[in-house]
Specification:
The structure holds 2 protein chains of 2 kinds.
Chain A: E1 2-11, E2 14-20, H1 22-27, E3 33-37, E4 45-48, E5 51-53, E6 58-64, H2 68-75, E7 81-82, E8 84-89, E9 100-106, H3 110-122, E10 126-133, H4 142-148, E11 151-156, H5 167-176, E12 183-187, H6 190-200, E13 207-210, E14 226-229, E15 232-235, H7 236-239, E16 242-244, H8 250-257, H9 261-267, H10 270-282, H11 286-293
Parallel strand pairs in A: 9-10, 9-12, 10-11, 12-13
Antiparallel strand pairs in A: 1-2, 1-7, 2-6, 3-4, 3-8, 5-6, 13-16, 14-15
Helix pairs in contact in A: 2-10, 5-6, 10-11
Chain B: H1 19-22, H2 35-44, H3 52-56, H4 63-71, H5 75-85, H6 89-95, H7 102-105, H8 117-130, E1 148-152, H9 156-167, E2 171-175, H10 184-187, H11 196-208, E3 212-214, H12 225-230, E4 235-238, E5 244-245, H13 261-270, E6 288-292, H14 296-307, E7 312-317, H15 328-337, E8 340-343, E9 345-352, E10 358-371, E11 377-381, E12 387-390, E13 393-396, E14 400-401, H16 405-409, E15 435-437, H17 440-443, H18 448-468
Parallel strand pairs in B: 1-2, 1-4, 2-3, 4-15, 6-7, 6-13, 7-8
Antiparallel strand pairs in B: 5-14, 9-10, 10-11, 10-12
The chains are: A alpha/beta, B alpha/beta.
One flavin-adenine dinucleotide binds next to helix 9, helix 14, helix 16, helix 17 and helix 18 of chain B.
Chain lengths: 294, 470
């Protein structure tokens, strides 16, 4: 069992956890993930590592409430335990001295950005961070990222901060303006990563994305996580999760991710939505949730 | 022995659930002998002077010995004899391919009526479970020798090696990647063929010997083999199986609704998708399911698909019936349950709908040509023979290969061209000092009993090496 040492509701549907897992903390590297199973009947699902502390034996994660499993996880409180946590899985990020590196993160992608930026800085890179969110109310960790990065740009979907409404749009404008960028990393929603890859392609800037297909074992045993990259089939959990965004077959990935929509909806029944409301109340953010529901 | 006057050539059939009933549930198909049936079948064994049966068993079980004990009604003795060679009889009795092993070489096989050795073995093992007090199990008299061995993987190879070494006084830790122990016995072979409670019983027994089982530990990730050796383990036994699925490499294979047999079986057995939504893991089985391949894995997948509600399930196999690698009993069971065998057909491509979901498969007819390297006649494509079959789910069941996680993180471990670990067959030793290997990782996908046999030999070799320094 893996005890939750700290829990924080960052914005109504996004939760930060610090979990006791000393052996994983010792081996974790940027870009890696863990697979969790909340309870005896739970499914196995992956979350990226957002940080770790070898001294305390803690790992950190940050997740978006999407359906049954993430809802269950969100329902646990400090002091509760997660039944299974296995990791660190996946290959670590290739970190070199690239020069100017642009890191894009949206929603849960902000989590894995933190260890990435730290590692890039250690290698002497200049890091320009871009955070994408829907609006001010969905934004979190802005100050943290500003502190870590050489430059921070916030892109909001409601257009309230600057011209661009999407990170990809910002990327296009930034490159168009002649800024030199040697490498791009994009973490977060699949659609965002796809758009960012499209935006950088004309400029020939290599763009690394962290793919999030559906997984089961996470050790290369089932093939559920297979994706087409440069016309080859790869298993995301062992060959990735990071790939060259210009080579990824996005269409197949998106279709495969939608494979269980019907079942997911069935699992995430109304009773669980009730749970979401309770969590929000607990964290005195209910005002925001009811605003979201409208 | 054939001089014996009254040779009884009537094998006692094993009671089974009726096909119509069993294709709708996940309970065990074969129900096991009653006491009378077991006595009757045991009574047919003539205790040969030269028992052929023993030669067919990869671990040399004293078959006439345990059968005579059944005849005499001394069940604790039957258990003892069986277990002195085979630590997992409840499992082997159910899943060993007896028709190509012990029952093939039974002297009565010549008369087409070999003793049902597997069924008797299962009977003895089930008797033991029902009478836990009758046979002493456990670790009281084991004296620790202060040495530590790490076992990677908790399938039949890992469990066997761990149990043997623990009994010799070693402190054994088993590292398992998944959240339960048992390997293929838990995630691959379905409940209706091998109840999971039996596997867990064996795991509990291994634990009762003092073995520590660490779940959720992927070796190569959370620690490498070299780190284990550096941090206090005197030896490592590699038993991670050969779990990486192979695909057909045909167009359309990444459509939704295409599952590797491993994924399909893992969702069903390990994650209990057949109990969705009580269990959280979903699985999708449409009305028509095509399974590619004709081994045990394909049979298991096709029979699971039926039980998950499919109306038509096809086994698509490019050779003919005689070349099918599955156990006879399993292909018969599958056919009885309604699985349709489309032999001498081979898939050319999978077709999808607009949403990227598989909807049909294009098949080619095949004919058998000259024998190939494997001695089986090579299937050759009949020109212009394509036809389309509509399906909702496709399951390639083509076999598996070793997972690269351990080889790619262990220095100095030599591999074969198939990606298996180069291993000495007699001792299980590898090119790397203090590292042994056995089971599917050493041989490629094989059988439970061969994995166990290799693990036994490795345990003996590890013990020798650690005692004598070679
Ligand atoms: C390598 C990797 C790292 C990830 N890191 C994070 C992270 O740091 N934070 C975060 O919030 N999310 C992350 N995800 C996505 C996360 O795993 C899914 O959101 C989660 O499994 C959804 O489960 P659910 O039951 O709550 O929702 P469901 O109702 O099951 O599904 C909602 C959505 O999640 C996707 N999904 C469902 N099951 C899985 C699964 N087993 N694996 C992957 N995706 C699935 C579905 O396609 C669907 O779009 C990551 C995914 C991968 C593959
Ligand atoms: C569907 C199916 C049906 C079968 N039917 C039969 C049958 O009827 N009769 C028969 O005799 N044989 C059958 N077999 C074959 C038989 O199950 C295998 O030969 C046998 O299980 C091999 O044993 P093993 O211990 O080598 O490996 P496995 O049983 O594969 O166990 C290996 C274990 O190691 C774990 N592991 C892998 N990598 C790591 C790592 N890096 N770190 C930690 N742990 C790791 C795995 O998770 C797994 O639990 C079948 C196989 C399948 C897939
Ligand atoms: S272990 Fe398998 S081969 Fe050996 S006697 Fe038992 S059933 Fe037969
Ligand atoms: S099992 Fe067959 S070969 Fe073995 S002793 Fe009995 S009759 Fe003879
Ligand atoms: S999740 Fe099973 S192979 Fe990647």
């Amino acid at each position: 069992m893996y005890r939750i040492a700290k829990k924080e509701v960052l914005v109504p549907n996004t939760i930060y956890l610090k979990v006791e897992a000393p052996e994983i903390a010792v081996k974790a590297q940027p870009g890696q993930f863990v697979i969790l199973r909340v309870d005896e009947v739970g499914e196995r699902f992956p979350l990226s590592l957002a940080g770790w502390d070898q001294k305390d034996g803690m790992i950190e994660m940050l997740f978006l409430i999407m359906g049954r499993s993430t809802m269950k996880l969100a329902g646990l409180q400090e002091g509760d335990s997660i039944m299974d946590v296995v990791g660190p899985l996946g290959g670590p990020t290739e970190i070199e001295s690239y020069g100017n590196v642009l890191c894009v993160g949206s929603t849960f992608g902000v989590g894995p950005m933190v260890p990435l930026i730290k590692a890039l800085k250690e290698k002497g890179n200049r890091v320009i961070s871009v955070m994408e969110a829907k609006d001010e109310g969905s934004l979190f960790w802005e100050d943290e990222l500003r502190g870590l990065s050489d430059e921070l740009h916030v892109v909001l979907g409601d257009g309230s901060r600057g011209k661009a409404r999407q990170a990809s749009e910002f990327l296009g404008q930034y490159l168009e303006a002649g800024n030199k960028v040697d490498r791009v990393f994009a973490f977060g929603r699949v659609f965002m990563m796809m758009q960012c890859s499209r935006a950088t392609k004309p400029f020939g800037v290599k763009t690394i994305v962290a793919l999030t297909p559906i997984m089961v074992d996470g050790t290369g045993m089932c093939g559920c996580c297979r994706v087409s990259v440069g016309d080859e089939t790869k298993f995301t959990c062992v060959d990735g999760p990071e790939f060259d965004g210009h080579e990824v077959d996005w269409e197949t990935l998106i279709k495969r991710k939608r494979a269980y929509l019907k079942e997911e909806a069935r699992a995430f029944d109304l009773g669980q939505l009730e749970g979401l409301r309770r969590i929000a109340e607990l964290s005195r953010l209910s005002g925001r949730v009811s605003a979201m529901e409208k | 022995m054939s001089e014996k006057p009254k040779l009884n050539l009537n094998r006692v059939p094993i009671p089974k659930q009726e096909p119509d009933a069993r294709r709708a549930n996940f309970s065990e198909v074969a129900l096991g002998y009653s006491e009378e049936q077991a006595l009757e079948e045991a009574g047919r064994c003539i205790d040969c002077k030269k028992p052929g049966c023993k030669d067919g068993c990869p671990v040399n079980v004293d078959i006439p010995g345990f059968i005579m004990a059944i005849q005499e009604g001394d069940m604790p003795e039957a258990v003892r004899i069986l277990k002195s060679k085979n630590s997992l009889p409840g499992i082997c009795g159910r899943v060993c391919p007896q028709e190509t092993q012990c029952e093939l070489t039974c002297n009565l096989a010549r008369k087409d009526a070999p003793i049902a050795i597997g069924r008797l073995e299962r009977y003895v093992a089930d008797w033991e479970i029902a009478h836990p007090e009758a046979v002493k199990r456990g670790a009281e008299e084991i004296k620790s020798n202060g040495r530590k061995v790490a076992v990677i993987g908790s399938g039949p190879a890992g469990l066997t090696c761990a149990a043997d070494l623990a009994q010799l006084g070693y402190a054994v830790t088993v590292f398992e990647a998944l959240h339960v122990a048992g390997g293929v016995l838990m995630y691959g072979i379905p409940e209706f063929r091998l109840p999971k409670a039996i596997v867990q019983g064996e795991v509990d027994y291994v634990k009762s010997l003092g073995v520590e089982v660490k779940l959720n530990h992927v070796i190569g990730k959370i620690a490498t083999v070299d780190e284990l050796l550096k941090n206090g383990f005197d030896a490592v036994f590699l038993a991670p199986g050969a779990g990486a699925p192979m695909f057909l490499n045909i167009p359309g294979e990444n459509l939704s609704g295409v599952y590797s047999a491993n994924e399909f079986l893992t969702r069903t057995n390990l994650m209990k998708a057949y109990l969705f939504p009580q269990y959280d893991t979903p699985i999708q089985v449409g009305k028509r399911v095509a399974v590619f391949g004709a081994g045990n894995v394909a049979m298991d997948a096709s029979r699971c698909a039926l039980r998950l509600g499919a109306e038509e399930v096809y086994i698509i196999y490019r050779r003919s019936r005689t070349e099918m690698p599955a156990r006879l009993e399993e292909s018969e069971n599958a056919e009885e349950e309604g699985v349709v065998f489309k032999l001498l057909t081979n898939p050319g491509r999978l077709l999808g709908d607009r949403r990227g979901i598989v909807r049909a498969v294009e098949l080619n007819e095949m004919e058998l040509g000259e024998p190939d390297e494997s001695g089986r006649r090579r299937p050759v494509l009949k020109p212009d023979s394509e036809f389309i079959v509509e399906i909702d789910t496709a399951i390639p069941a083509l076999g598996t290969r070793p997972n690269p996680i351990i080889p790619s993180t262990t220095e100095g471990l030599e591999l074969t061209k198939w990606g298996t670990v180069l291993t000495d067959e007699e001792t299980g030793s590898t090119s790397k000092e203090r590292v042994w290997c056995g089971g599917d990782m050493a041989t490629g996908a094989a059988t439970v009993i061969s994995a166990m046999g290799a693990a036994r030999r490795a345990a003996i070799s590890i013990d020798k090496w650690l005692k004598n320094g070679k």
